[in-house]
Amino acid sequence: MLRALEEEGYTTPTPIQGRAIGPLMAGKDMLGCAQTGTGKTAAFALPILHLLQTAPRDMAHRGPILPRALVLSPTRELATQIGESFAAYGRHTGLRGVCIFGGVSQGKQVRALREGVDIVVATPGRLIDLLDQGLVDLSGIRILVLDEADRMLDMGFIMPIRNIVSRIGSTRQTMLFSATMPREIMKLADSLLKDPVRVAVTPVASAAPMIEQSMYMVPRRMKSVLLEHLLQEAAVARAVVFTKTKHGADKLAKSLNRSGISASAIHGNKAQRQRERVLDGFRAGRSRILVATDVAARGLDVDGITHVFNFDLPMEPEAYVHRIGRTGRAGAKGTAISFCGEDERGLLRQIERTTGRKFDAITRLPELPEPAIEEKPSNAWHGASHRGDHSAGSSQGFRPDRNRSGRPGWRR
After folding, report:
1. Alpha-helix runs per DSSP H in 74-148
2. What's the CA gap between 101 and 394, in Å, rounded?
3. Residue 241 above 60 pLDDT?
4. Beta strands of 18-129 (E only): which ranges?
5. Residue 146, class by beta-carbon neighbours within 10 Å (0-12 exposed, 13-18 middle, 19+ buried)?
6. Scanning 79, 137, 166, 397, which has its CA 20 to 30 A from the CA of 252?
7. Does the global pTM surpass 0.85?
8. pLDDT given at position 204
9. Alpha helices per DSSP H over 234-331
10. Domain spans of the chain, in order of start
11. pLDDT given at position 99
């Protein structure tokens, strides 16, 4: 593991890693409050790999190796990234795992489970599907992780989580990580954790200090032309633009491409292979702009994102922090620019109350051309469409080898 960390370029632990790794290696339960981009995945993945590598397997069990660690994640993008981290850190350990999420055939995942895995990383919905089909056995789970618990609460996964936990033995080590700690999350933690170590490395709902934030007051019909104007700046090397709806993401990406700005859209209506192609193109620089719904707010980890644009303000104020957290990662500087329309002032006030920040909104816009066709105001019902913008279910296996890009990762 130390050799793998050296190969990854890790030398000094982040604050959450420094505070979490020791107690977790000692077998303690943990309640962690940390934003994305703080090194949280390594904070729990490294102790899990250590514990699995040093703990003896149950030699009395016949058949394939039963999974001993389960990590639950709200979205398939985040699940994939967690699995890739396990594969990278554990490339020299011989431990194996599988990632289970929706949008792809379950065939590869079932084969991986039949061959035997040590670690399962999963979204709740498909995992329950496999449990109901009798295709996965959780009786050997000794370590359970709930990552981004507040996001899973927002997506309606609390009952599925309780269903899954009921199929795991009580003799286990449990870790719950969340960026915010609403009352429902505290109730869930109280029911799952035993005398947990509490770790909070950043204030709840606070943004990274290296992110420069600004807010434009702009009529909805002028948002597209303002965005195109700002994207022409040379400093915008790689940007994520967040929209409220899936239809809006597709429409905006097409508009940007017509204006000569390379852009791709990603959201829950796209098949898994399409989403992977879009992300690969964004990472490789074939698309400078990624237009996304909140499905990517916590599941997107791409180096070198210089800017985040909130084309539409999020319906939940906590999502603002997770959106802009795509930039300014690992100590780098970042820029977050948000657009507030006439019908979004209430959302702006909620963001200000949650973050404790009062925006000095920009009301004087640069000289902009009139849009060719005036955009129709969005239907108020569309505001909740992103709640369904997720998938739960299928799988890809990982081994300590290398994938097509040459980096340790998934067995495709």
Report:
1. 76-89, 107-115, 124-132
2. 4
3. yes
4. 30-33, 69-72, 97-100, 119-122
5. buried
6. 79
7. no
8. 45
9. 246-258, 272-284, 317-324
10. 2-204+390-411, 211-388
11. 96
- What per-residue confidence (pLDDT) applies to 373? 57
Residue 155, pLDDT score: 74
User: 278 with 264: CB under 8 angstroms?
Assistant: yes
Among the four given CATH numbers 3.40.50.300, 3.50.30.20, 3.40.190.10, 3.30.2130.10, the one describing domain 2-204+390-411: 3.40.50.300
Provide CB contacts within 8 A for 400, sequence distance 6+: 87, 90, 91, 92, 93, 94, 95, 96, 408
Asked if residue 158 has pLDDT above 90, the reply is no
Asked if pLDDT for residue 263 goes beyond 60, the answer is yes
pLDDT of residue 194: 95
Quick one: residue 28, left, alpha or beta (phi over 0 = left, psi -120 to 50 = alpha)?
Answer: beta
Predicted pLDDT at 297? 58
Select from 388, 352, 380, 412 the least CA-distant residue to 125. Answer: 388
Q: Are 241 and 322 in contact (CB under 8 A)?
A: no
Residues in contact with 355: Cβ distance below 8 Å, sequence separation at least 6, in sequence order: 205, 206, 207, 317, 320, 321
How confident is the model over 350-368, as a mean pLDDT?
89
Please name the amino acid found at residue 308: V
Please give the angle made by the CA atoms of 39, 44 and 47, to the nearest 5 degrees: 120
Tokens of 80: 């994939």
Distance (Å, whole) CA 45 – CA 193? 18
Beta pairing class for 395-402 and 97-100: antiparallel
> Hey, what CATH topology would domain 211-388 get?
Rossmann fold (3.40.50)
d(C-alpha 135, C-alpha 113), whole Å? 8
Task: For residue 377, name the pLDDT band (cuts at 50, 70, 90).
Answer: very low
Q: Do domains 2-204+390-411 and 211-388 have the same CATH topology?
A: yes
- Name the one residue in this structure whose structure tokens are 């859209």: 265
